[in-house]
Amino acid sequence: MTSDTQTKTAANRRRITSSVMTTLTATCAFFAVTVLVLIIGYIALRGLGAINLQFLTDTPKPVGEGGGIGNAILGSLILLLLSSVIGLPFGIAVGIYLAEFGAGRFAGLIRFVTDTLTGVPSIVVGVFVYTILVLPMRQFSALAGGIALALVMIPIIARTTEEMIRLVPTSLREGALALGAPQWRVTTGVVLPAAASGIATGAMLAVARVSGETAPLLFTAFGSRFFNVYLDQPIASLTVQIYNYAISPYDEWHAMAWAATLVLMTLILAINILVRFFTRKKI
Amino acid sequence: MELHRLLDRDLEMLRDRVLLLGGETETALQKAMYALIERDTVTAREVLDGDDEIDRLEVEIDRLCVDTIALRQPAARDLRFVISVAKITPILERIADHACNIARVAVDLNDEPQLKPYVDLPRMAEFASGMLRAALDAFTSGDAAAARAVIERDDQIDQLYNRIFRDLIEMMVSNPTTTTRAARLLFVTKHIERIGDYVTDICELTVYMTEAAFIKHSN
Amino acid sequence: MATPTSTTASVKSATETMQERTRAFENDRESRVAAKVSVRELDFFYGRAQALHKISLDVGSQIVMAFIGPSGCGKSTFLRTLNRMNDTIPGTRVEGSVQIDGQDIYAPGTDVVELRRRVGMVFQKSNPFPKSIFDNVAYGLRINKLTSSKTELSDRVEEALTNAALWPEVKDRLKASALSLSGGQQQRLCIARALAVRPEVILMDEPASALDPIATQKIEELIVELKRQYTIVIVTHNMQQAARVSDETAFFWLGKLVEVNSTEQMFTNPNEKLTEDYITGRFG
Questions:
Q1: CA-CA distance, C222 to C185, in Å (whole number)?
Q2: How do residues A41-78 score in pLDDT, each as one tens digit?
Q3: Least CB-CB distance to B80: which of C17, C239, C268?
Q4: Is the CB of B12 inside 8 Å of chain C's CB atoms?
Q5: Homologous superfamily in CATH for domain B2-211
Q6: Would the pTM count as exceeding 0.80?
Q7: Cβ contact B–A (≥3 pairs, < 8 Å)
Q8: CATH class held by domain C32-125+201-279
Q9: Dist. CA A111–CA C165, nearest whole Å
């Protein structure tokens, strides 16, 4: 009888613990999501009012004359494209090196450097590029902005690529090696395809991260009031534009800052969805 | 580890059963010969009644062997043990059958006057049951040398058989009225001679079990 | 049940004692026309730890040899020395010789890529590439440039799939993902992939340990079938499996080769006490 009672007590205790923990985690999840929804909702609320076709296509105008962020959207896209073109191959290559050949002391050094770079404040990267590129060229430029963003991307991509490649099971590698495949063919033909979606996710995260960067651009791309597609010229970007609007004393510009923020968020979301769509498991 | 203990339990059970069957068979043979020589019909009937138990044991051991092979998958020494038990069991049962046949002859002969004082027949019987006991001992202790020694002894049974055979034929020729009884005794000696062969088979299986060597049909 | 009949150490005459049978087996092995795989005094080290001690072993042509032994006894490590798969693990070292058709595969200048084409391998966990069924089988052919035309490539793929007893099940969906196959099919696909490059020796590292009994049976039947053309070395934890598929069995213990013998002998009357204890489940 007593043992039976004990069993029942133990079972009750388990049930109570279980429900308490479930409630606790669910509450936490609820709060996290709520905060996120509130932020997005608030931005949409404040920003939606100022969005119209002119806002999305026009260049900035003085206060009271309207104007838009068309050149900033284009500038951001150009900067992202440029930084991706430079940063993705570089970062992925470093990641592959670290994962496939990264046993030696040199690789350890590289790993240390990339880890350190991830932790460096992005403004430092901006100042760095300003020193080595903007000063010699005597010119703020899209190129300098792109390189600055790429420098922020590379360590992130390198480390996620390394992690993703390491996740590819050894058995897959060995299967290819056992068929007489040389190492480089194993990497390119088997390991990379198997890690592709993971690498893409890492790249996407890196792109999303730099698309929100303002600091490295202040000293490099600088900003511009005009549509610009030349890489050796200063170029506008959403983040810098938001910054400029936000620190102004005008309500009209504040509203435009909110609207531009909404656009930036939508842009990041679009990039996310696109990348997910193209890297979803095909096989 | 668990499986190993299960197998050992089964092997122990098999060893136990086959020893019991061996003992029953040995008793049946001794009792049958006692019934014949001492003209004791009651003992003869005991032998005949006891055969059911022997048949039951045989079936039980058969089933145990199949179960052990199917469920425990014994290998090497264990496998040879189970196979040997499976082959020895029907041999023991057949020895018991011969004992029954001897007991039946005893019942018939006890209704008639004794042909002559038995001399060689008790010796032959004692010899056969001695061989059976030694063979069973060698099997249980896994003693191949002892088993080989028992096989050697079969020649002596054969010699005794030939001598008794000659004596009985002579008796039938010189005194035709003894023919029926002499013929019955002839069957008894034939049964004992067969038992000697069966004991040899048991010993050969003992050698197989311990050394994995097939010595059957080698000479 | 297809029991492999062995030419070695079968019951020849009744007078044979255990020792004579063993000697006959040894003689038989030596007289065999040049062993396919011949290992002499092989030591293997993971860093400073020695995993294999002075292994000497011959594997004859077109037979199935099974490696058995408790976990960590070195049987998988030894298997992997036969196609230098251990080279991919940093800090490993080999001493002694492994000859395949008389050629030392550890000699300087050995083309490891070519070696691995000749000595194929099937792994414990089926490891199809995340590609189509066709591309999986074609992989080895393509990287080794073994075919000269598209028709030849698809012929060789079909041949390999047929030999792996998988063709009827996949012939209508060669373009489907290899990962859409069942576990047993995936493993047969990996065997087909290994067969496609026409190796001479196939190493199998517990090829059926993750499969259900029916899939296992198919793999085992396949192994017995493949023996006609290939020399097969299989590592298995399942002793019944070793008994069912192999002609010869080698027992490893603590990095040493304890006994190699015909499979019949091994499972009815092994020479070594240690082997008998392992086979009868009386270990430790």
A1: 12
A2: 999 998 888 888 888 888 888 887 888 888 999 999 99
A3: C268
A4: no
A5: Phosphate transport system protein phou homolog 2; domain 2 (1.20.58.220)
A6: no
A7: no
A8: alpha beta
A9: 47
